[in-house]
Amino acid sequence: MAHIRLAVVQDASALLDILKQYIETPITLEYEIPSVADKETQILAFSHDYPFIVIEDDSEVVGYAFAHGDLAQPGLSWNAELRAFIRLNRRGNHYGTAAMNVLMDILRLQNVRNVYSNVTEGNPRSESLHRKLGFNKCGVLHKTGYKNGRWLDVNLLEKRICDEEGTERPAPFVPFSKLDRAEVQKIIDKANEALK
Ligand SMILES: CC(C)(COP(=O)(O)OP(=O)(O)OC[C@H]1O[C@@H](n2cnc3c(N)ncnc32)[C@H](O)[C@@H]1OP(=O)(O)O)[C@@H](O)C(=O)NCCC(=O)NCCS
Questions:
Q1: pLDDT digit string, tens, across residues 7-35
Q2: Is the CB–ligand 1 distance for residue 90 below 6 Å?
Q3: What tens digit of pLDDT does each residue of 115-163 get?
Q4: Residue ranges of the alpha helices (H) in the chain?
Q5: DSSP β-bridge partners for residue 66
Q6: Distance (Å, rounded) from C-alpha 180 to C-alpha 193?
């Protein structure tokens, strides 16, 4: 049975196996698979500030998802970009939906207000997933990505994940590492119940 848990550095190889399945496609605009050491560093670095999760079943990691953002500019700290990858032969089992919902629920605890995704043209599954999750298309970067001899559009998708519209100073961004782990686990447990 599949369940979600927080990613650990030991997941790096499995995540690279999944990314390998997409590396020849424009779904990712990376050209080469990073080294295991680089992936380990990324997991550690990203999960300090943002949620980084994996979905696994009894035999293997079947997908992963993470958020990241621009904390160098404090005025942008209430935003995060989301990314998810599910093994090719495990798509269509609602893992992508569950993973994105867990990310957004954790980001709400962090006082994040807006989430974004960049989706390269020609990725109908990702477009459907985001539409279903309530994302709106807010723009297109025309011919901004180059892969496999083609210039590609990247669609920008956004979703507001808080209710407040107030102009007062918002509650500050809380780095993932400062969250109450019990609260995080509650979100993951709820998602895992739904995956059963
Ligand atoms: C996009 C991706 C994450 C979706 O993950 P998934 O686990 O297959 O998605 P889900 O099973 O949760 O399905 C989500 C929705 O996608 C849509 N979908 C499913 N299969 C589809 C298909 N064959 N064609 C088009 N849309 C499809 C449906 O709307 C579905 O919702 P529904 O089943 O309730 O109708 C996965 O295909 C993937 O890893 N793709 C490569 C990486 C990527 O594009 N990531 C995008 C996020 S940054």
A1: 999 999 999 999 999 999 999 999 999 99
A2: no
A3: 999 999 999 999 999 999 999 999 999 999 999 999 999 999 999 999 8
A4: 12-20, 36-49, 95-109, 124-132, 181-195
A5: 52, 83
A6: 21
Token pair of 100, please? 């994105």
Ligand 1 atom 29 nearest Cα: 128
Give residue 117's Cα distance to chain centre: 8
The span from the CA of 109 to the CA of 120, in Å, is 29
Strand partners, 78: none
The angle at the Cα of 86, spanning 153 to 182, to the nearest 5 degrees, equals 115
Closest alpha carbon to 99 in 187, 20, 11:
187
Q: How many angstroms does the Cα of residue 145 sit away from the middle of ligand 1?
A: 22
Amino acid at 11: D
Read off the tokens for 132: 């279903």
Would strands 150-160 and 52-56 be described as parallel, antiparallel, or unpaired? Answer: unpaired
- Residue 100: closest CA among 73, 80, 77, 74: 80
Q: Is there an atom of ligand 1 within 6 Å of 26 CB?
A: no
Instruction: Sketch out the chain's domains with CATH numbers.
Output: 3-195 (3.40.630.30)
